[in-house]
Amino acid sequence: MSAAPLPHRPAAPLTDVLRRPLRSLRISVTDRCNMRCRYCMPEQEYAWLPRDSILSFEEIDRLAGIFARLGVDKVRLTGGEPLLRHQLPKLVTLLRRHRGIREIALTTNGILLARQAKELREAGLSRVTVSLDTLRPDRMLEFARTGRHRDVLEGIAAARGEGLAPVKLNVVVVRGYNDDELIDLVEFARAHQAEVRFIEYMDVGGATEWSMNRVVTRQEILKRLEQVYGVITPVNEGAWAPAEQFSFRDGTVIGIIASTTEPFCRTCDRSRLTADGTWLLCLYGENGLDLRQALREGSADDEIARRIEDTWRQRTDRGAELRVASPERGALYQLESLRADPHREMHTRGG
Ligand code: SAM
After folding, report:
1. Residue pLDDT, tens place only, 62-71
2. Distance from Cα 40 to the centre of ligand 1, integer Å
3. Which end of the chain is more exposed for a tag (fewer CB within 10 A), N or C?
4. 109 and 81 in contact (C-beta within 8 Å)?
């Protein structure tokens, strides 16, 4: 007897063992990147995902539809650098058709954003987050091996001009690299009506040079900002957001993502789909569910939905919290293990 088809939306949210709903899906559309940030891609050579394993837009769209039926209402396109994927606006148009998906956001390094912002907005993109670690082009060249700082700034301006607002600016704070720019970045964000989000340097795959003494903690970031802006007050944002928001006396709002020292696993409703269709339940998770195989061997939507549902119901991951508890914390992976399985790389998982 075949099982009854699943309804269009679940009557009650699909939750895991720790009662966390399946809600936010990060879709990596490529593992390729046009930057080489040292906290993510410090090496010269990489083991890339085979080209024929990369999901087509139709395959991504089909999976997104299944996830939407199971409760996903927010999708973020990421990578690698998502704007390297040819004709990305076409994917946005496809994803927009799913009734349950309320928001489609994009995380990008901004290099190719100026020329695509209009088309992305017209396709239905809701918001953009641009990674901007430094305001100094020479630093970017040295740290991220690209001289295209001006293109990033133009990308931010174009996104704002298209109303892809509020533009968020992701800053990974690394001691000795950009931690002397916290105030400059706040001021830049204020001048461009953007919201800056300081991210603690994480010991994820790819961060082979990570060490705790290069992490500038949430506490230290707040202390340094308070010295300049006075009392900073927490803002009660939605409990499921990764960034905690804080406001200055003049109303300026900033975010801090403290995944390294004060992780938020208990409220994590995020999962990740890699460009080759591996579904990961945690940024630190070792293994994922191979949805590409299910798609390509002809499984029906209901069958794939049931596999996703069963997997989420059994989810217990608390990767970042376990890392905090780990006594001799260092880089999560060394080069050999990243080469052995590129799915461990942050640029494959999508940040
Ligand atoms: N290429 C796009 C970009 O630059 O935004 C999207 C992919 S990137 C992997 C997504 C986010 O992950 C970026 O904001 C990046 O700064 C962040 N990230 C990568 N490695 C990180 C690390 N070791 N610690 C904290 N954040 C990291």
Report:
1. 999 999 999 9
2. 7
3. N
4. yes
